[in-house]
Amino acid sequence: MTLTHDRRAELLGGCPLFAGIDADGLTALAAVATPVDFPAGHVIARQGEIGTGFFVVISGRVRVVRDGDVVARLGPGEFFGELSVLDRMPRNASVVAEVPTSCLALASWDFE
């Protein structure tokens, strides 16, 4: 999926995690954010693994699974992966694409 730089900044700006970042900061984040497509059934993040990415759902839907139980479903504009990226601890849940899903990905090193 191709996204304009402005659309990437808009998606990131919609995340409460980035509420205190000014327009220049969002522009810088958008420059390093990458759109990624996942097929239905793909495990995007695996519980227990160290996370290296933060994701904003552009289209599609994912389910969040902790210890075998579905704890949430996320759709466009919602995000996941922030805890593991920020605290560098293993992910506390798995995230699986329920349908073909596009996300905007931001690598953990880009947070630094």
Please provide a written account of the structure.
The protein is α+β, with helices and mostly antiparallel strands and 112 residues long. Helices cover 26% and strands 35% of the residues. The protein is built from 4 helices and 8 strands. 28% of the residues are buried.
Which properties best describe this structure?
alpha+beta; 112 residues; single chain
Terminal-residue CA separation:
26 Å
Give the biggest beta sheet. Answer: 4 strands, antiparallel
Backbone CA Rg: 13 Å
Determine the strand fraction and express it as a percent band.
25-35%
Q: Could you give the order of the helices and strands? A: HHEEEEEEHEEH
Taken from the alpha-carbon principal axes, the silhouette is globular
Concise account of the structure shown:
With 112 residues, the chain is of the alpha+beta class.
Helices and strands in order:
Layout: H1 5-13, H2 23-32, E1 34-38, E2 43-45, E3 53-59, E4 62-66, E5 69-74, E6 79-80, H3 82-87, E7 94-97, E8 101-107, H4 108-111
Antiparallel strand pairs: 1-8, 2-7, 3-6, 3-8, 4-5, 4-7
Helix pairs in contact: 1-2
